[in-house]
Amino acid sequence: MQLTLTPVQDSDIELLSEWLHKDYILQWYHDADEWIHEMKEREGNFNFLSHYIVFESDKPIGFCQFYDCFDAKEDWYSVEFPNKIYSIDYLIGEENFLRRGYGKEIVRILTNKIIRDKNPEAIIVQPEQENVASCKALLANGYIYDLDNNYYILECL
């Protein structure tokens, strides 16, 4: 398994839309059009998001992104300062790559990229608990479930 991350380009939007509209992804990502809008506006209002296509060799198989929680200001956490706490999202868009360890590897590569490039205090993630594969991928990469805050956390310092 040799995965690489490549920044999303306009030419990737059609494939991303195809993936985001698949039933097994919609159950976790819900509003595909909102995700596509964010990617189209990645150099504008959503420039705090870093979007990537995941490749296995030369085949695009998935998507991932990371962001500074300070900029995103979502309602499931509280962050007072920028450049400290980051979060991630990830998916496998090609069904024949499901249940084969690719999700775990995507989380590993993306986590390492954030640690290397941003030197965060922590990375937090809040997949739905019913998304067992996602939760297992996080646990396999050293994330710990924080019962008090209802999210997975990887302390980086």
From TrEMBL:
Keywords: Antibiotic resistance. GO terms for molecular function: N-acyltransferase activity. GO terms for biological process: response to antibiotic. It comes from the Bacteria. The keyword Transmembrane helix does not apply. Gene3D superfamilies: 3.40.630.30. This is N-acetyltransferase domain-containing protein. It comes from uncultured Dysgonomonas sp.
